[in-house]
Amino acid sequence: MTWTRLLRAELRKLTTTRMPWAFLVVLVAMAGINAAVVIGGTDFDGTKSFLATAADQQSLVAFASNATVLAGLFGAMAVAREYAHGTVIPTFLSSPRRHRAVLAQYGAIAVGGTAIGLAGAALTNVAVAASLPTTDFGFLIPPSAVVRVLGAAAFAGMAGALLGAGIGTVVRNPGGAVTGAVLALIVAPPLIVQMANEASAWVPAPLATALSGVSAEAAGVGSQAGPVAAVVALAAWALVPALVGLVSVQRRDVV
Fold first, then answer.
1. Which among 207, 250, 249, 248 has a CA at the least distance from the CA of 227?
2. What HEC string does the chain produce?
3. The pTM of the whole model exceeds 0.90
4. Measured at the alpha carbon of residue 246, what is the angle toward residues 75 and 186, in degrees to the nearest 5?
5. Within 13 Å, how many C-alpha atoms sit on residue 17's CB side?
6. Among 82, 67, 85, which Cα is nearest to 13's?
7. What pLDDT is stored for residue 186 in this prediction?
8. 110 in Cβ contact with 162 (< 8 Å)
9. CA–CA gap between residue 137 and residue 139 (Å, rounded)
10. Which whole number is the average pLDDT over 43-58?
11. N or C: which end of the chain has fewer CB within 10 A?
12. pLDDT tens digit string along 135-193?
């Protein structure tokens, strides 16, 4: 079976389950929360100064950090479920060269993660833009910044999905894989920063925020990685576990 057919088969498997719809519901809910913040939220002095500038609004709609976590959970669940339900067995029987099947699976999950990030950023932008007329402020973010927010969320979603897929390939149990993704994306980064403060700009959430074009001042951090460095570092966070997963499939029994 060619790699293209393997990729199509993996995409078909992903899109014929309920999991993508569940993530879509989460994205809509998160967009609704942002709209509620715009409509009802205030600063400590009762004003809505957190919406007063384009930088403030860009910080509010930047979705890349959330995309990394959500897509990480998506990737971990998508892969681990294959091993837990045994559906990975016919995949490897039809494609005995396991690395090709795993790469096709990674490709499909990367597409799914990209879609999650892009959809989340688009829904958040629409929700915030639609709710701003209830305030004294208009939508101030220039089109180029909106494009950057969308692109950053798409890339962060792809990176998060690959990271989660790598963890799912190694752990092979849905609960354990989700726990591993949470540890890698939510629990471990603050601990790393506590041990080495200079690493604060190089963990996934700050990297995704920097990639979205949110300034260090608006993000409330002391320093940020540059755009190119953020892309490279975020890709490294994704590719290391993905490669570990690929090697583990080659060396371990499937069942």
1. 207
2. CCHHHHHHHHHHHHHCCCHHHHHHHHHHHHHHHHHHHHHHCCCCCCCCHHHCCHHHHHHHHCCHHHHHHHHHHHHHHHHHHHHHHCCHHHHHHHCCCHHHHHHHHHHHHHHHHHHHHHHHHHHHHHHHHHHHHHCCCCCCCCHHHHHHHHHHHHHHHHHHHHHHHHHHHHHCCHHHHHHHHHHHHHHHHHHHHHHCHHHHHCCHHHHHHHHCCCCHHHHCCCCCCCHHHHHHHHHHHHHHHHHHHHHHHHHCCCC
3. yes
4. 40
5. 17
6. 82
7. 95
8. yes
9. 7
10. 88
11. C
12. 989 999 999 999 999 999 999 999 999 999 999 999 999 999 999 999 999 999 999 99
Residue 71 one-letter amino acid: A
Look up residue 113 and give its two tokens. Answer: 């993660």
Amino acid at 211: L
Query: What number of other Cβ atoms are within 10 A of residue 96's Cβ?
Result: 9
Res 168: pLDDT? 95
Token pair, residue 16, equals 């014929």
Instruction: Report pLDDT for 3.
Output: 80
